[in-house]
Amino acid sequence: MSSQPEVGVVIPSHNRRALLARTLRGVLAQRDVALQVVVVDDGSADDTSDYVTGLGDARVTLVRHEVPRGVSAARNSGIERCFAPWVAFSDDDDVWSPVKLRAQLDALAAHGRARWATTGSVRVYGEDLRILFGEPVPRTSEVADVLLKNNIIPGGASSVLASTELVREVGGFDTRMSNLADWDMWIRLGLRSPLAVVPRPLVGYYTHVGSMAGNVDSALQDLGVIREKHRSAIAARGVEPSLENLLWYLSALQLRAGRRVGAARVLLRLVPLGRPAVHAFRNAAVGLVWPGLQRYRDRRDERALSPEWRCEAEAWLTAFRFRRACSDVTNHRSP
């Protein structure tokens, strides 16, 4: 029997076989852990299931939903099949450093009381996984109050490792939500346990036009569910989820997707909030008339990234880029 710590990894996927293949390379390359990977094919119409079963890797289990049930239900199906004491989550388009899981387990052991952990991340974009900016870890391990206001966990679900028992104790992911289901889960974990942090960029959070996070109406509906669901904790702690911060985030996603009118409409929803109205009007107007606004922001964010953070992320991202370059060469050879 392996003496390495056992970690389950749950990866929901829907019609993104090519991206899933890249994600799995990073997951299966994890060092110094015993892996149980559960890929949940949530009703894909492509060859996702055939690809996963064709891997022939005993560490990988396929769960198939014949009809799409949504990302929360898919994650829950994966959790049900996870028999390891620890479970990590990865979206099907993100990438990991090979030391990601081991670093989190070490941080949990050093903390002593924490039952979940996160790492820092970098936002990456395009087929070459160009780094846009860094996302640091929370500055405190006592995150319950902060999480009730904002989702401060970097890298989406892909940065979190948690006690499987704890995830089941809090009831898994809420199937009423899609865009903000991970935030709701982190709130519940934070109310039960402190957080262990790894202040290193060990996750590449992939940003692209097809990102589910760009669905504005769905995100706002999810925010309402979070507010109602955690009403008692919000009242007791005197904090509540920030609509303002969510709208700024959603407007940035719209702008990145080239939807300048959509970005302006999101920003104008800030007007009834009062204080940010002038700032919102100005940014909405600039976004409408200046197509290069997002490129300007990207360059600004790239310059703000610390050399140390960039160097560590670039070092392990190179393996994914090299694999892509080799694949391109092979595909262009004459038969």
Automatic annotation (TrEMBL):
Query: Where in the numbering of this chain does the Glycosyltransferase 2-like domain appear?
Result: 9-113
Instruction: Indicate whether Cell inner membrane appears among the record's keywords.
Output: no
Q: Which UniProt keywords apply?
A: Transferase
Q: Which GO terms describe its molecular function?
A: transferase activity
Coiled-coil-forming residues are: none
Source organism, top-level taxon? Bacteria
UniProt-listed Pfam families: Glycos_transf_2 (PF00535)
**InterPro entries tied to this protein:** Glyco_trans_2-like, Glycosyltransf_2, Nucleotide-diphossugar_trans
Q: What is this protein called?
A: Glycosyl transferase family 2
**Species name:** Geodermatophilus africanus
- Classification lineage: Bacteria, Bacillati, Actinomycetota, Actinomycetes, Geodermatophilales
